[in-house]
Design goal:
Elements lengths: L1 E5 L3 E7 L2 E7 L1 H12 L3 E7 L14 E5 L4 E7 L9 E4 L8 H4 L7 E6 L9 H8 L5 E4 L1 H4 E7 L2 E6 L5 H5 L4 E5 H7 L7 E5 L5 E4 L3 E4 L13 H13 L5 H16 L10
Parallel strand pairs: 1-4, 1-8, 2-6, 4-5, 8-9, 9-12, 12-13
Antiparallel strand pairs: 2-3, 6-7, 7-11, 10-11, 13-14, 14-15
């Protein structure tokens, strides 16, 4: 059986002080490196307009591209290498939704679960989430993208603002695990029908709300090098352990360690180091 990881691959511009670099990004991209090591039976499905972007994934035979008319573009700007926890982010807010008909012909016949990684509110229409719920397998979902809306226009891109919306409750209803950070948790409040809620807070660790609340300490890193994709790495590591039926606490501690290891290296999690 196969874990299906769905969400955009992105073209990113990373600005650190006066330095600029172009990179491949997106939660599904960062997570594929974690699953390559800890849940090898996976399929990544990405939406984009440039099929060359999938060449950077750890196993190209485990990636399928849904070709669209645009690709997500992000600018991640940091003032200096000494302050990589503070980021200004812009996006083109590509409107390239993943629809049920996009998935019908490419999903595997046997599925372990779904990992959904929207990067903006357009990526997963409610009809797509309902379609995936119909497979009756665990769904792990990052809610950040659902809260993102374009803010102030800066040249061809937009600042990112976060906003709750009425349809979110029905989208999340019945989802097994949702992932979000503390600011997002404060925004959406309570009362959602989900199995587990994993709330991250950077160097302050994370907490998991299921039958009770579990506090997970962050694993200190020796050398903070690259925080981009840290939350995506945590999420994938957590999912890999929950699929092995490990407890939320065990999964959280494991995810914290893997996220810390990722921060100490450039790029995605390096499973060959």
């Amino acid at each position: 059986m196969t874990l299906v990881v769905i969400g955009p691959v992105t073209h990113d511009l990373v600005v650190i002080g006066d330095e600029e670099s172009h990179k491949i990004g997106g939660a599904t991209y960062f997570q594929s490196f974690v699953f390559e090591e800890f849940h090898n039976d996976y399929l990544a499905i990405v939406n984009c307009s440039d099929e060359k972007l999938i060449e950077e994934f750890p196993s190209k035979d485990k990636v399928k591209a849904i070709m669209k008319e645009n690709t997500h573009f992000f600018i991640n700007e940091y003032s200096s290498r000494e302050d990589l926890n503070t980021r200004v982010q812009l996006s083109n807010f590509a409107n390239i939704p993943i629809l049920p008909e996009d998935l019908e012909e490419i999903l595997p016949s046997q599925i372990d679960g779904f990992v959904l990684n929207p990067l903006n509110r357009y990526d997963f229409p409610a009809e797509t989430v309902e379609y995936l719920k119909g497979f009756d397998v665990p769904i792990f979902l990052s809610i950040q993208g659902f809260l993102r809306l374009p803010g102030v226009q800066v040249n061809e891109n937009f600042t990112i603002k976060l906003s709750d919306f009425d349809e979110l409750a029905s989208i999340l209803s019945g989802v097994d695990v949702i992932f979000l950070d503390e600011s997002e948790k404060n925004m959406i409040g309570t009362g959602y029908d989900v199995g587990e809620m994993v709330i991250t807070n950077g160097s302050h660790g994370s907490r998991i709300i299921s039958d009770s609340e579990i506090k997970i300490d962050a694993v200190p890193c020796v050398n903070l090098v690259d925080t981009t994709g840290c939350g995506d790495t945590y999420m994938a590591a957590y999912v890999s352990q929950r699929l092995l039926l490990k407890s939320p606490e065990t999964a959280g501690k494991f995810a914290s360690r893997i996220a810390s290891e990722k921060i100490e290296n450039f790029g995605p999690y390096n499973f060959n180091k």
